[in-house]
Each structure stands twice: as structure tokens, then as C-alpha cells.
Design brief:
Layout: E1 6-10, H1 17-31, E2 34-41, H2 57-77, E3 85-89, H3 92-102, E4 107-112, H4 118-122, H5 125-130, E5 136-141
Parallel strand pairs: 1-2, 1-4, 2-3, 4-5
């Protein structure tokens, strides 16, 4: 029996998500652990001024449909059941922390681009997830090698 029992993989939906999922799947297999995947959609905050009303509902619906389709493709590829994949709205770090706490997650796996300069100063989603996590966090290096 391994040290991890339930692994949460927080992914964006880029091509690099496959790298993160493959690493998480490998760790889950080694530990005979359950694997859960989440993609968090940040709410749109589009403002054009008070004179032009903007209804972002159809745009959000389109984003959600794309996310569900992409996550279905990725989770099928990784043999993750429908019950263990989630597309939700909110701030990624807060939602990942909430899911981890509510589901007895003992490892969170995220992708990291290893940004420098201004992007490093402003922070990143993976850094935000690391801070405040209730369990171990693994940042899988993606992008430049």
C-alpha cells in the first residue's frame, strides 16, 4: 500500500495538461490511489462601462461546454470515471483547497510553467494552490525543458 490514497489533479485544458495527468496517473498507479481531476473556470469579469450592458451568459456557456468536452477527452484517456472529474466555477486555489479538504485528498498535482520576472512577482495558480493546501502538493514542470 502506498502513501497516497486519493490524488487530486488540478489542470488547465492546454496540451500540457496531458503531461500533468500522466505524472499523476503514474503516482496513483504506484500507490493504488483514487484519482480525481478538476478544472476550475474563473468567472468572467468583463466591463465595458455603464452605458453598454454585456450579457456574458452565452460566452460562459460556451466556455463550460468546451471545458466539459476537453476534460471528458482527457479523463477518458487517463481512465478516470465520470464521477471523478469536475468542471467548476470559482477561484482555482480556493476551489482546489475546498475539494481537497472535503474529499480527504492527500496529494494535489498541478502543472507549473516555472515563470520568471513579472509573472513570478504576480504569482501563479500553482503557487497559490501550494500556499494554504491541507496536504502535499506536487508541481509538475511543463513547457520549456
Amino acid at each position: 500500500m502506498g502513501i497516497y490514497k486519493h490524488i487530486l489533479v488540478a489542470i488547465d485544458l492546454s496540451d500540457e495538461a496531458t503531461v500533468v495527468l500522466e505524472k499523476a496517473k503514474e503516482i496513483a498507479s504506484f500507490n493504488n490511489a483514487k484519482l480525481t481531476i478538476v478544472h476550475v473556470i474563473e468567472p468572467l469579469n468583463i466591463a465595458y462601462g455603464s452605458d453598454i450592458p454585456l450579457n456574458a451568459t452565452s460566452f460562459e456557456k460556451e466556455i463550460t461546454e468546451h471545458a466539459v468536452q476537453r476534460l471528458s477527452f482527457l479523463s477518458e484517456k487517463m481512465q478516470v470515471s465520470d464521477e471523478e472529474k469536475h468542471v467548476i466555477y470559482g477561484k482555482p486555489e480556493k476551489e482546489v483547497h475546498r475539494i481537497a479538504k472535503n474529499n480527504e485528498i492527500d496529494l494535489i498535482v498541478v502543472g507549473s510553467h516555472g515563470r520568471h520576472g513579472l509573472a513570478l512577482i504576480l504569482g501563479s495558480t500553482s503557487t497559490s494552490i501550494l500556499h494554504g493546501a491541507c496536504c502535499d502538493v506536487l508541481a509538475v514542470r511543463v513547457g520549456k525543458k
